[in-house]
UniProtKB/TrEMBL annotation:
Broadest EC class assigned to this enzyme: oxidoreductase
Organism annotation: Hydrogenophaga laconesensis
Catalytic activity, EC: 1.1.1.100
Family: Belongs to the short-chain dehydrogenases/reductases (SDR) family.
Assigned keywords, A-Z: Oxidoreductase
Protein name (Swiss-Prot/TrEMBL): 3-oxoacyl-[acyl-carrier protein] reductase
Gene3D superfamilies tied to this protein: NAD(P)-binding Rossmann-like Domain
Pfam families (UniProt xref): adh_short_C2
Length: 269
């Protein structure tokens, strides 16, 4: 069940791009930004899945459009952002999500079992997808002297987790990049923050196979352990609420921060 509309929403008239928005967390973020008044650009690789999200947003009385682009290709991401800027004249919000848990992404793997190809895949999925989107969006935002950027990643970038050496390593690099960019891009009126998460109760894991010692069926063993250690359940809407807060005016005094939404699984400093 989606929350009720916000009359005179905090993001009224804002142009927001949500990458990886055709399912689960990205979808929830797109719906929440629309609920708060933004015109949402839904990004994904599958036009049919993207249209389903747009239809859902429109059915609730909000505005959205779809932009197809593979987040792992910088040229495609840059062209997408350029199309958005040309059509709307600006870009106010970027929420960089997606790619990290898609069906062609590697699952939990022990370091000793990984190949050089695995290293590249983890870095591209968990870090470079965010870097490509942020660089393209920041160029457009700087022209207007303002913007909000929110990067979504995993708490493995903050807490050492067995089986997530490169998931965590790549995400830690992404989060450090965001902290540096908060300083660099702040001069252009752009705020940069991150949302970190762990197990999400209503998001279906779609990874490829991982290490047999950790897996129990596409990481099921690790996922069950994470779930048991959580004090409170976390749903896609919880991540959407955090992203929307960092995209909205209530967070104008916040930049360069990472907000963990993990149900008490860990308390990183």
């Amino acid at each position: 069940m989606n929350p009720a509309p916000l009359l005179g929403g905090q993001l009224q008239g804002q142009i927001a791009l949500v990458t990886g928005a055709t399912a689960f967390i990205g979808r929830a973020i797109a719906l929440e930004l629309a609920r708060r008044g933004a015109h949402v650009i839904v990004n994904g690789r599958n036009p049919e899945a993207g249209q389903a999200v747009i239809n859902e947003i429109a059915a609730n009385g909000y505005c959205a459009a779809f932009e197809q682009a593979d987040l792992t290709h910088s040229d495609a991401v840059r062209a997408m952002v350029d199309r958005v800027a040309e059509r709307h004249g600006r870009l106010d919000i970027l929420v960089a999500s997606g790619a990290g848990a898609s069906a062609d992404s590697p699952s939990f793997r022990l370091f000793k079992e990984m190949s050089n190809g695995d290293f590249d895949n983890y870095i591209r999925a968990h870090w470079l997808t965010r870097a490509f989107a942020i660089q393209a969006a920041a160029r457009v935002m700087a022209l207007h002297g303002r913007g909000k950027i929110v990067a979504v990643g995993t708490d493995a970038g903050r807490v050492a987790t067995v089986g997530e050496s490169f998931i965590g390593g790549a995400t830690a690099g992404m989060m450090q990049m965001c902290r540096v960019l908060a300083r660099e891009l702040g001069r252009d009126g752009i705020r940069v923050n991150a949302v970190a998460m762990s197990y999400i109760w209503d998001a279906e894991p779609r990874w490829g196979p991982g290490s047999p010692a950790l897996e129990g069926g596409h990481g099921k063993g690790m996922i069950e352990n994470l779930r048991k250690r959580m004090l409170f359940p976390v749903h896609c809407q919880d991540i959407a609420n955090a992203a929307a807060f960092l995209a909205g005016p209530e967070s104008d005094a916040i930049t360069g921060q990472t907000l963990s939404v993990n149900g008490g699984l860990s308390t990183p400093g």
